[in-house]
Amino acid sequence: MFACVAGAAIAATAANAAGDDPFRAAEAWAFPVFPPPPDPHAPKPKSDPRKVLHVTGSAVNYTQAQMDGIDDADWFPQDHPPAPHIVEVGRKPARPCAECHLISGIGVPATASLDGLPKAYILEQVAAFHAGKRGIGGPATAHDMIDEARALTPADLQQAADCFSATKFVPRVHVVETASVPKMHWKYFVQVPDEGDARGPIGERIIETPASFSDYSLSDDRVRYLAYVPTGSISRGAVIAANGTGAAASCESCHGTKLQGVGDIPYLAGRSPTYIARELILFRLGRRTNPGAAPMRAEAAQLTLNDMIDVAAYAASRKP
User: Fold this and answer.
1) How far apart are CA 253 and CA 150, in angstroms?
2) Is the overall model pTM greater than 0.85, yes or no?
3) Any bridge partners for residue 190, and if so which?
4) How far apart are CA 158 and CA 154, in angstroms?
5) CA–CA dist 42, 35 (Å, integer)
6) Torsions phi, psi for 199 (to 5 deg)
7) What is the pLDDT of residues 290-317, one digit of tens each?
8) Which domains does the chain possess?
9) Contacts of 158 (CB under 8 A, 6+ apart)
10) What three-state secondary structure class fits 186?
11) What are the tens digits of pLDDT across the range 172-221?
12) Distance (Å, rounded) from C-alpha 272 to C-alpha 223?
């Protein structure tokens, strides 16, 4: 009898592991890739420290020397409240929040958009990182948040959460349904098109790329993104968001009828679809384990990878 029970348990574990295969494969496009280490034998690129740098639409200028000496630029100071010290400069050993989330908190596809999130939700997530219940076993870029959460002082955390929760979220992604996408490669934590006109089938993927890689590379927090998603995914995602699918409840039952968030439950409308899909995958694979994540773990367990892509595409296409 015990042998039969043990055999059944092993079979169930194997089946669950096999069922997770598509989600693990999706990490190739959903999780950011670290840049390769520099070749120590390669000649160092020459740069003029006096060169004046610009991004589209900004009246602010920086020299190359200034950019080399700061963690993040503030191209549009009028877009956000004055940033506290921990956001703009950091307080060792804590790094500045702006280094990954940009000074406005809007983030990039590889990181979370913090703007407009409920303060209580921000504090809850930092506590989860601090406790090792978020970030461990996930994308390598999330591992930094564990160290950051443990380095922050309570005062710094409160100031950062106050700042980001008070900043209005402005969506910057344009969702495009397509059957094929330009060939891409990872560069500085984001996907950018290869040279030439080569394209390939989109398959079961979301491919998100900045409209201007130059502006992205200079930490422009107004840079726009194109998010390529499979044809028909927005309408399919709308059905799941409103009605659920199978045993999965509707997204709107928790996140609101327009996915704009309810109370301390975060908004989804207008967010990076890559980020949404990545977090759904992490819920599915059991890599977000704080108590507040339990409802989403149960929800993600009922979704296929295609469901996740469709929901992410629909949510990103909505106005907050």
Assistant:
1) 34
2) yes
3) 187
4) 6
5) 16
6) -130, 165
7) 999 999 999 999 999 999 999 999 999 9
8) 21-31+170-317 (1.10.760.10), 52-165 (1.10.760.10)
9) none
10) strand
11) 999 999 999 999 999 999 999 999 999 999 999 999 999 999 999 999 99
12) 13
